[in-house]
Amino acid sequence: MEIKTEIQNIVKRTKAYNCVECGKCSSVCPISLLNGVCLPRVTVRKALFETTDVLLRDELLWSCLNCGLCFERCDFDVRFPEFIRDLRIVAHKMGQGGVLSHNGALQSIMRMMASAELRQNRLGWLSRGLETAEKGEYLYFVGCLPYFDTFFAYLDLDLLNIAKSTVKILNYLGITPVLMPDERCCGHDLYWTGDLESFKILAQLNWEAIKATGAKRVITSCPECYYMLKQEYPKYVGKMEVEVIHISQLLSENLPELKFRKPKAEGRKPRKVTFQDPCRLGRFAGVYEEPREVIAAVEGNKLYEMGKNRREAICCGTSGWMTCGTWSKQIQVARLEEARRTGAGLLITSCPKCMIHFKCAQADRDRAKRAKIEIQDLATFVAENLMERR
Question: Considering the chain, what percentage of its residues have pLDDT values greater than 70?
Fold first, then answer.
């Protein structure tokens, strides 16, 4: 298929032709608000009227965060995140791409995992007392936490504590989850930055491994894994005979079974916390209330919402380990300042990438004071507040 024809098909499929250039998307786009050159409607116009070379050099094509705020605001059903994603796939075929963070090391790791011959040791992080299985009804899809924990060790995040906490919670609920020793990256970042072929290989390898465990329910602690397994995998591997569920949903449906520790001192003031809605869990999957229900159930804490929450929540400032620069840092610091303005001392999220990106912004000495707030993942927050089983 000719490239021009492929672009025309993308315009039709994503309803980009509906764009009336009203500018509502630009009024909420975190990138457009900082860089007046990067406007969604301008990118659409280039797809309609400019040459392929001009379109694929468009600045927003590689700066877009795919956060979905534009789609929420659009009155004409233009599926702009898909429009950008599919244009990136075309660009990738032509050897073009964005500026990769960390010199592309993370993308290299993902592509290495797309090798069927690769054998990994992914379960070395399991600690004593955590019960897992090789086959069973429940499978915990860990995601790239083992790699992120090593790669971002300098941020002192202990990201594998998210995985340990998730297994601890599942054990608490009487679930012995299957963990796959050769699990691969879900492929989210490769897919959303244009490398469709590597993503399809990862999806097929993961699906074959999941089927071999006999699992009926797949649990994730990463919103991107949740979104990809639930919504994108079936498009490429066929119907999946499993239910995919995020840990926040599992916690919400099992709240009566969760017994939390009482505040240590009677009459202690509730701790003020706020919540960051991850893009893939919120706008892309519609999971908003479950995390909040879980936070509210933990005694001794009170949730204070940021002004921009749920469908209007601002993202963590970068996506797909790409184009992470001054705009990203401004978005991250502004969001952390908004969290501080609630009066909360703790920002809870349920996405490891939100933790990484916000913590990275806090590591900048020039911005550290403005961005100072404790950050914790929902799974670790719940696990540390559970009462011990007798």
Answer: 97
Quick: pLDDT tens for 3-58. 888 999 999 999 999 998 898 998 999 998 998 888 888 899 888 888 888 888 88
Q: How many residues does the chain have?
A: 390
Taking the CB of residue 288, how many other CB atoms lie within 10 A of it? 17
Domains and CATH numbers, the chain: 3-93 (no CATH), 101-253 (3.40.50.1860), 257-385 (3.40.50)
In this structure, the number of other CB atoms found within 10 A of the CB of residue 312 comes to 15
**Edge-to-edge strand order for the sheet containing 346-349?**
301-303, 271-276, 346-349, 374-377
Dist CA 240 CA 218 (whole Å): 11
Question: What is the reported pLDDT for 269?
Answer: 61
Q: How many C-beta neighbours within 10 Å does residue 272 have?
A: 14
Prediction pTM value: 0.94
Distance CA 87, CA 16 (A): 12
Strand 217-220 and strand 138-141: the pairing is parallel
Q: How many CB atoms lie within 10 A of CB 51?
A: 10
Backbone torsions φ then ψ of 219, nearest 5 degrees:
-110, 135
